[in-house]
Design goal:
Blueprint lengths: L6 H22 L6 H6 L2 H17 L6 H22 L2 H17 L10 H72 L4 H29 L16 H11 L3 E6 L2 H5 L2 H21 L5 E8 L3 E8 L19 H10 L3 E6 L5 E8 L8
Parallel strand pairs: 1-2
Antiparallel strand pairs: 2-3, 3-5, 4-5
Length: 370
Amino acid sequence: MWESNGPAVTALGASPALAAAGTLAWAVARPRAGLRQRLGRLARPVTACAALSLTTGFALPTAGPGAHWKLAGAAVLLLLLAVVTRWSPPRELICTLPPTALAVALWPLPLVTGETFLEAIGIATFWLLPVVGAVAAGAYPRRQELRRRRAVAEARSAQRLHLSRDLHDFVAHDVSGIVVQAQAARFVAATDPSHAVLALERIEKAGLRALASMDRAVEMLHGPEAPAVDPLPDVSRLPSLIRNFNAAGATEAELVMAPQVADALSREVGAAAYRVVVEALTNVRRHAPGAHHATVVLTRTATTVEIRVTNDCGAGSAPSHHRASPGGLGLPALTEQARTLGGTLSAGPIGGGGWQLTVALPTSLPKRTS
């Protein structure tokens, strides 16, 4: 039989508490470099401490100073359980939680004599409450960090999508103009060098615009500390866009827009409207190269602005069929953006073999409520 007050009993009774305290001290009483990794590796040592507590709790006498050590061991196990819940991988946490919960819930049972089964269940249930509290204390910051990481990942994904749309809508438009001008210069270089020189000048301007668009995208990647960059163009830049389009190819584009339309649109809607026109004209150049005429019409009502871009088929040409670009952008991306802004987009063939794109956007975005 064990002697209730012997040094061996005291040492064995104190061993779970000392082991748990030593485990915690090993994790935190070292340089902070690698602290998170050490805390994430505590699951197995905590499981061993819980098993030792269960073994000694029912093997040793109930009287004597061992009771105080058991209480101290349960308290340290609760602290370790919170740390494991916060930092350990889910698979290891699942293995550590049951024995640790049992060790904390059952530690007072050997100290109580004459209790009924229901009383023992009540005592164990009561001591499960601190276990729940420890798990909640570790799970809450873990959940918050997970939500933060997801928010950061979603923000990065949205930024990448935004940048890809910018590169597609603006750079692809200028590159398409460069291709058209280069093709024209190749045919007239031998017979009319002066026209070839004009085409090269237009190629240079289109290339500079494409570089400016890429510079703007790169500056956005540098975050809020980056130098200020020019804002995205809005409908006030449409006249120059139409001039550049007419100079770069055989299709003649015409803009019909009342002067007050630009002043009536918010910055976001104005940039979206400009993006719509850029994408529509780029599609005309790609998918209807034989078109003779394109019309861009912006009309405004009390609450919306309608952008309608129409092109003909061209004499002797097959009916035009505008498509999404190979990268999955183009019209699908514009449709999603229009829906995000509270608008609508429709596109399809019209009589005579032409094509029409119609987008309706609210003149201003509703204010967000916090």
